[in-house]
Amino acid sequence: MSGELARERKLKLFWNLGLIVVGVGLLVLILLKGRGANFAAGQHFVFLVTLAFVAEYVDSSLGMGYGTTLTPILLIMGFAPLQVVPLVLLSEFLSGVTAGLLHHRCGNVDFGRGTEARKVVWILASCSVVGTLVAVLLAVSLPKTVVKLYISGMILAMGLFILLGRFIAHKLSWRRIIALGTIAAFNKGISGGGYGPLVTGGQILAGVSEKKAVGITSLVEGLVCIVGLITYLLLHGMPEWGLGVPLVLGAMLSVPMATWTVRVLPERLLRRSIGYATGFLGLLTLVKTLT
Q1: pLDDT top residue among 211 and 37
Q2: Which residue range is the domain that position 92 belongs to?
Q3: pTM across the whole model
Protein backbone atom coordinates (compact mmCIF):
# COMPACT_ATOMS: atom_id res chain seq x y z
CA MET A 1 0.00 0.00 0.00
CA SER A 2 2.86 2.37 0.88
CA GLY A 3 4.55 1.64 -2.47
CA GLU A 4 1.34 2.45 -4.35
CA LEU A 5 0.94 5.66 -2.36
CA ALA A 6 4.53 6.68 -3.13
CA ARG A 7 3.97 5.99 -6.84
CA GLU A 8 0.83 8.14 -6.82
CA ARG A 9 2.70 10.98 -5.10
CA LYS A 10 5.46 10.86 -7.73
CA LEU A 11 2.88 10.91 -10.52
CA LYS A 12 1.17 13.87 -8.88
CA LEU A 13 4.46 15.76 -8.50
CA PHE A 14 5.65 15.25 -12.09
CA TRP A 15 2.18 15.88 -13.52
CA ASN A 16 1.67 19.14 -11.63
CA LEU A 17 5.18 20.39 -12.45
CA GLY A 18 4.58 19.60 -16.12
CA LEU A 19 1.28 21.47 -16.17
CA ILE A 20 2.85 24.51 -14.51
CA VAL A 21 5.74 24.59 -17.00
CA VAL A 22 3.41 24.23 -20.00
CA GLY A 23 0.93 26.78 -18.67
CA VAL A 24 3.53 29.43 -17.86
CA GLY A 25 5.32 28.87 -21.18
CA LEU A 26 2.15 29.24 -23.24
CA LEU A 27 1.06 32.29 -21.26
CA VAL A 28 4.41 34.02 -21.85
CA LEU A 29 4.32 33.23 -25.58
CA ILE A 30 0.81 34.61 -26.00
CA LEU A 31 1.29 37.76 -23.90
CA LEU A 32 4.56 38.70 -25.60
CA LYS A 33 2.41 39.64 -28.61
CA GLY A 34 4.70 38.68 -31.42
CA ARG A 35 8.16 39.87 -30.47
CA GLY A 36 10.40 38.21 -33.01
CA ALA A 37 7.41 37.17 -35.17
CA ASN A 38 7.26 36.41 -38.91
CA PHE A 39 8.90 33.02 -38.61
CA ALA A 40 8.98 30.77 -41.66
CA ALA A 41 7.59 27.27 -41.26
CA GLY A 42 10.54 25.63 -43.01
CA GLN A 43 13.08 27.25 -40.67
CA HIS A 44 11.26 26.19 -37.52
CA PHE A 45 10.00 22.73 -38.41
CA VAL A 46 11.26 21.14 -35.18
CA PHE A 47 9.86 23.99 -33.10
CA LEU A 48 6.44 23.67 -34.73
CA VAL A 49 6.44 19.88 -34.24
CA THR A 50 7.32 20.38 -30.57
CA LEU A 51 4.66 23.08 -30.17
CA ALA A 52 1.96 20.86 -31.69
CA PHE A 53 3.18 17.91 -29.59
CA VAL A 54 2.85 19.81 -26.31
CA ALA A 55 -0.50 21.38 -27.21
CA GLU A 56 -2.03 18.06 -28.29
CA TYR A 57 -0.56 16.21 -25.31
CA VAL A 58 -2.39 18.59 -22.99
CA ASP A 59 -5.54 18.36 -25.14
CA SER A 60 -5.62 14.54 -25.30
CA SER A 61 -4.86 14.15 -21.60
CA LEU A 62 -7.17 16.90 -20.27
CA GLY A 63 -9.69 17.22 -23.11
CA MET A 64 -8.90 20.86 -23.92
CA GLY A 65 -6.28 23.33 -25.03
CA TYR A 66 -5.10 22.45 -28.56
CA GLY A 67 -6.77 25.06 -30.75
CA THR A 68 -7.21 27.51 -27.87
CA THR A 69 -3.43 27.76 -27.33
CA LEU A 70 -1.94 26.76 -30.68
CA THR A 71 -3.93 29.13 -32.93
CA PRO A 72 -2.99 32.40 -31.17
CA ILE A 73 0.67 31.33 -30.94
CA LEU A 74 0.83 30.64 -34.69
CA LEU A 75 -0.82 33.99 -35.39
CA ILE A 76 1.73 35.69 -33.14
CA MET A 77 4.50 33.98 -35.12
CA GLY A 78 3.25 35.67 -38.28
CA PHE A 79 1.15 33.01 -40.00
CA ALA A 80 -2.04 34.24 -41.65
CA PRO A 81 -5.45 33.21 -40.20
CA LEU A 82 -6.52 31.67 -43.53
CA GLN A 83 -3.43 29.48 -43.34
CA VAL A 84 -3.67 28.58 -39.65
CA VAL A 85 -7.35 27.76 -39.10
CA PRO A 86 -7.85 24.93 -41.65
CA LEU A 87 -4.55 23.26 -40.77
CA VAL A 88 -5.27 23.39 -37.04
CA LEU A 89 -8.67 21.83 -37.82
CA LEU A 90 -6.97 19.14 -39.94
CA SER A 91 -4.43 18.22 -37.28
CA GLU A 92 -7.10 18.30 -34.57
CA PHE A 93 -9.38 16.04 -36.61
CA LEU A 94 -6.67 13.40 -37.13
CA SER A 95 -5.30 13.54 -33.59
CA GLY A 96 -8.75 13.79 -31.97
CA VAL A 97 -10.19 10.73 -33.68
CA THR A 98 -6.95 8.79 -33.06
CA ALA A 99 -6.95 9.84 -29.39
CA GLY A 100 -10.57 8.77 -28.99
CA LEU A 101 -9.82 5.33 -30.43
CA LEU A 102 -6.71 4.91 -28.27
CA HIS A 103 -8.62 6.01 -25.15
CA HIS A 104 -11.07 3.22 -26.02
CA ARG A 105 -8.26 0.71 -26.53
CA CYS A 106 -6.53 1.69 -23.26
CA GLY A 107 -9.76 1.24 -21.33
CA ASN A 108 -10.23 4.90 -20.42
CA VAL A 109 -13.63 4.85 -22.15
CA ASP A 110 -15.82 2.22 -23.86
CA PHE A 111 -17.29 3.23 -27.24
CA GLY A 112 -18.84 -0.18 -27.85
CA ARG A 113 -22.35 -0.52 -29.27
CA GLY A 114 -25.05 0.49 -26.80
CA THR A 115 -22.67 1.98 -24.25
CA GLU A 116 -23.30 5.20 -22.38
CA ALA A 117 -20.17 6.83 -23.84
CA ARG A 118 -21.26 6.10 -27.40
CA LYS A 119 -24.65 7.72 -26.75
CA VAL A 120 -22.93 10.80 -25.33
CA VAL A 121 -20.72 11.05 -28.44
CA TRP A 122 -23.70 10.98 -30.82
CA ILE A 123 -25.68 13.49 -28.74
CA LEU A 124 -22.76 15.93 -28.53
CA ALA A 125 -21.94 15.54 -32.23
CA SER A 126 -25.58 16.08 -33.25
CA CYS A 127 -25.99 19.09 -31.00
CA SER A 128 -22.82 20.54 -32.50
CA VAL A 129 -24.58 20.94 -35.85
CA VAL A 130 -27.49 22.81 -34.24
CA GLY A 131 -25.24 25.00 -32.13
CA THR A 132 -23.01 25.91 -35.05
CA LEU A 133 -25.99 26.90 -37.24
CA VAL A 134 -27.38 29.13 -34.49
CA ALA A 135 -23.94 30.68 -34.03
CA VAL A 136 -23.64 31.49 -37.73
CA LEU A 137 -27.03 33.23 -37.69
CA LEU A 138 -26.16 35.34 -34.63
CA ALA A 139 -22.48 35.99 -35.28
CA VAL A 140 -23.10 39.06 -37.42
CA SER A 141 -25.12 40.86 -34.73
CA LEU A 142 -23.10 40.20 -31.58
CA PRO A 143 -20.00 42.29 -30.68
CA LYS A 144 -16.85 40.12 -30.56
CA THR A 145 -15.78 41.53 -27.21
CA VAL A 146 -19.11 40.61 -25.62
CA VAL A 147 -18.88 37.07 -27.03
CA LYS A 148 -15.33 36.57 -25.75
CA LEU A 149 -16.20 37.91 -22.30
CA TYR A 150 -19.22 35.58 -22.14
CA ILE A 151 -17.17 32.52 -23.14
CA SER A 152 -14.21 33.28 -20.86
CA GLY A 153 -16.57 33.88 -17.92
CA MET A 154 -18.42 30.62 -18.55
CA ILE A 155 -15.21 28.57 -18.82
CA LEU A 156 -13.70 30.17 -15.71
CA ALA A 157 -16.89 29.51 -13.72
CA MET A 158 -16.97 25.90 -14.89
CA GLY A 159 -13.40 25.36 -13.70
CA LEU A 160 -14.32 26.72 -10.27
CA PHE A 161 -17.42 24.51 -10.10
CA ILE A 162 -15.33 21.42 -10.91
CA LEU A 163 -12.82 22.24 -8.16
CA LEU A 164 -15.39 23.23 -5.54
CA GLY A 165 -17.77 20.39 -6.34
CA ARG A 166 -15.22 17.57 -6.58
CA PHE A 167 -16.67 15.81 -3.53
CA ILE A 168 -20.24 15.91 -4.86
CA ALA A 169 -21.54 12.83 -6.69
CA HIS A 170 -23.29 13.78 -9.92
CA LYS A 171 -25.83 11.51 -11.58
CA LEU A 172 -25.72 11.43 -15.38
CA SER A 173 -28.24 13.84 -16.88
CA TRP A 174 -29.05 13.57 -20.58
CA ARG A 175 -30.69 16.99 -20.55
CA ARG A 176 -27.43 18.51 -19.33
CA ILE A 177 -25.49 16.66 -22.05
CA ILE A 178 -27.83 18.00 -24.77
CA ALA A 179 -27.62 21.56 -23.43
CA LEU A 180 -23.84 21.21 -23.09
CA GLY A 181 -23.33 20.09 -26.69
CA THR A 182 -25.45 22.91 -28.10
CA ILE A 183 -23.81 25.66 -26.01
CA ALA A 184 -20.27 24.40 -26.66
CA ALA A 185 -20.84 24.20 -30.42
CA PHE A 186 -22.41 27.66 -30.35
CA ASN A 187 -19.27 29.00 -28.68
CA LYS A 188 -16.97 27.34 -31.21
CA GLY A 189 -19.06 28.48 -34.15
CA ILE A 190 -19.25 32.08 -33.03
CA SER A 191 -15.69 32.57 -31.76
CA GLY A 192 -13.59 29.56 -32.82
CA GLY A 193 -12.86 28.53 -29.21
CA GLY A 194 -14.33 27.43 -25.92
CA TYR A 195 -15.31 23.92 -27.05
CA GLY A 196 -12.95 21.53 -25.27
CA PRO A 197 -13.07 23.15 -21.80
CA LEU A 198 -16.88 23.31 -21.86
CA VAL A 199 -17.42 19.79 -23.18
CA THR A 200 -14.93 18.14 -20.82
CA GLY A 201 -15.84 20.15 -17.74
CA GLY A 202 -19.55 20.07 -18.55
CA GLN A 203 -19.58 16.29 -18.86
CA ILE A 204 -18.04 15.97 -15.40
CA LEU A 205 -20.67 18.29 -13.94
CA ALA A 206 -23.34 16.32 -15.83
CA GLY A 207 -22.24 13.05 -14.20
CA VAL A 208 -19.66 11.56 -16.61
CA SER A 209 -16.44 10.26 -15.02
CA GLU A 210 -13.18 12.10 -15.65
CA LYS A 211 -11.46 9.54 -17.89
CA LYS A 212 -14.60 8.96 -19.94
CA ALA A 213 -15.07 12.71 -20.36
CA VAL A 214 -11.56 13.17 -21.77
CA GLY A 215 -11.93 10.28 -24.23
CA ILE A 216 -15.38 11.41 -25.37
CA THR A 217 -14.22 15.00 -25.88
CA SER A 218 -11.24 13.88 -27.99
CA LEU A 219 -13.45 11.88 -30.35
CA VAL A 220 -16.29 14.40 -30.57
CA GLU A 221 -14.01 17.37 -31.17
CA GLY A 222 -12.25 15.43 -33.92
CA LEU A 223 -15.60 14.79 -35.62
CA VAL A 224 -16.63 18.43 -35.24
CA CYS A 225 -13.32 19.58 -36.72
CA ILE A 226 -13.76 17.60 -39.95
CA VAL A 227 -17.13 19.31 -40.49
CA GLY A 228 -15.48 22.68 -39.92
CA LEU A 229 -12.58 21.80 -42.21
CA ILE A 230 -14.85 20.76 -45.08
CA THR A 231 -16.92 23.93 -44.70
CA TYR A 232 -13.78 26.03 -44.62
CA LEU A 233 -12.37 24.40 -47.77
CA LEU A 234 -15.65 24.91 -49.63
CA LEU A 235 -15.74 28.60 -48.72
CA HIS A 236 -12.06 29.52 -48.95
CA GLY A 237 -10.42 26.85 -51.11
CA MET A 238 -7.19 24.97 -50.43
CA PRO A 239 -4.66 26.51 -48.01
CA GLU A 240 -0.87 26.27 -48.22
CA TRP A 241 -0.16 22.81 -46.81
CA GLY A 242 3.42 23.42 -45.61
CA LEU A 243 2.41 24.31 -42.07
CA GLY A 244 0.16 21.26 -41.84
CA VAL A 245 3.02 18.73 -41.92
CA PRO A 246 4.69 19.71 -38.60
CA LEU A 247 1.31 20.29 -36.92
CA VAL A 248 -0.05 16.87 -37.88
CA LEU A 249 3.25 15.14 -37.06
CA GLY A 250 3.62 16.74 -33.63
CA ALA A 251 -0.03 16.21 -32.69
CA MET A 252 -0.08 12.55 -33.76
CA LEU A 253 3.18 11.73 -31.96
CA SER A 254 1.76 12.97 -28.65
CA VAL A 255 -1.46 10.94 -28.69
CA PRO A 256 -0.14 7.55 -27.44
CA MET A 257 1.68 9.19 -24.51
CA ALA A 258 -1.37 11.28 -23.61
CA THR A 259 -3.80 8.35 -23.60
CA TRP A 260 -1.37 6.33 -21.46
CA THR A 261 -1.13 9.28 -19.04
CA VAL A 262 -4.92 9.32 -18.62
CA ARG A 263 -4.86 5.58 -17.97
CA VAL A 264 -2.31 5.75 -15.12
CA LEU A 265 -3.41 8.99 -13.45
CA PRO A 266 -5.79 8.63 -10.47
CA GLU A 267 -9.32 9.94 -11.15
CA ARG A 268 -9.18 12.57 -8.39
CA LEU A 269 -5.88 13.96 -9.70
CA LEU A 270 -7.25 14.06 -13.24
CA ARG A 271 -10.40 15.84 -12.07
CA ARG A 272 -8.40 18.45 -10.18
CA SER A 273 -6.14 18.99 -13.20
CA ILE A 274 -9.16 19.42 -15.48
CA GLY A 275 -10.59 21.97 -13.06
CA TYR A 276 -7.33 23.94 -12.94
CA ALA A 277 -6.84 23.75 -16.73
CA THR A 278 -10.42 24.86 -17.40
CA GLY A 279 -10.08 27.80 -15.03
CA PHE A 280 -6.68 28.72 -16.49
CA LEU A 281 -7.96 28.76 -20.08
CA GLY A 282 -10.97 30.82 -19.03
CA LEU A 283 -8.71 33.31 -17.25
CA LEU A 284 -6.32 33.38 -20.22
CA THR A 285 -9.18 34.12 -22.63
CA LEU A 286 -10.39 36.87 -20.30
CA VAL A 287 -6.91 38.46 -20.14
CA LYS A 288 -6.54 38.32 -23.93
CA THR A 289 -9.95 39.97 -24.36
CA LEU A 290 -9.28 42.81 -21.94
CA THR A 291 -5.70 43.58 -23.09
Answers
A1: 211
A2: 2-290
A3: 0.77
